[in-house]
Amino acid sequence: MVLTLKQMRYAVAVADAGHFGRAARACNISQPALSQQVQAIEDLCGTPLFDRLKSGVRPTPFGAEFLQRARQVLDSADALTAFTLGQAGLPDRPIRFGLIPTVAPYLLPDIFPALTRELPELKLTISESRTDALIAGLVEGSLDLALIGTDAPDHGVRLVSRTLFDDPFVLATSRDENTSAPVSLSSLAPERILLLDEGHCFRDQTLAACRLGSDAGASTFAATSLSTIVEFVANGQGVTLLPRIALRKEATDPRIRIHDLSAPGAGRRLSLVWREATPFGAVFDRIAEVIRATRP
User: Fold this and answer.
1) Among 136, 166, 256, 279, which residue has the fewest nearby CB atoms (within 10 Å)?
2) pLDDT tens figures, 99-157
3) Distance of alpha carbon 68 from its chain centroid, rounded?
4) What is 93-165+269-293's CATH superfamily?
5) Domain chopping of the chain, boundaries
């Protein structure tokens, strides 16, 4: 028996989904057919790839090593296919594009239509996750492209980063607060600053800008979204920093007031990141150009 690329793709799909049924739906085949192909790999290897659990599946130690190698093989196969087919550098499958939660709802309404208009042959699948998960997706090969708000960390895989634009921060307070702009960050009472929960890069950037310790979350409110924080601010329960790109969506409540920060202020730099080894670098550079041209 010879191990096939299709079998490897099925095994990787099971690992990504954590479940045979969800993987089968993602691969558009029946669950018995997918299970049979994974079983064929296991028969060839003489050992299971996955522990079958009540809630789904988990790679065995051997399976984790197999999947890592399979992803490398599939990446090489995809690169060879793209090189062979040409197609003006466009892939013959959707590009898997991930964005951080403090960017996705504010940029996608503008950039998705622009990308569809400027690159009509391009297909995208969009996901939203935190920076560490997006970088892990690039490293593992489950993502092709990521839009993040920090420098890409070093995970042993060479990544390419293209700057999109700077996104300054502003201060949001309730309408009833007596605040004069521009606001000095040093004048803010630490206990009144509302933060996202741990794992969000925007939380870390707020902590750094306001010179708060990393344990600030122990004594301050922590939310899962900027929209939740803004509602608390509107009710007079604290203040928060917001990225300027979020204002069209998050600052429409008349109970909110937005204030500029005094120099040097604070902000973040948004970047598009991908693996250096991708065959679609020219396409990703074009995507970066479109995003820059359609920034809000």
Assistant:
1) 166
2) 999 999 999 999 999 999 999 988 999 999 989 889 988 988 889 999 999 887 766 67
3) 21
4) Periplasmic binding protein-like II (3.40.190.10)
5) 5-85, 93-165+269-293, 166-268
Question: Model pTM?
Answer: 0.69
Specify the CATH class of 166-268 in words: alpha beta
Token pair of 112 as six digits: 């998705």
Q: Please state which CATH class domain 5-85 belongs to.
A: mainly alpha
Tokens of 188: 């803010």
Spatial distance between the Cα atoms of 215 and 152, rounded to a whole number of angstroms: 23
Between CA 81 and CA 177 the distance in angstroms is 60
Give per-residue burial for 237-269: e unless 16+ CB within 10 Å, then b: ebbbbbbbbbbeebbeeeebbebebeeeebbbe
Phi, psi for 220 (deg, rounded to 5): -130, 160
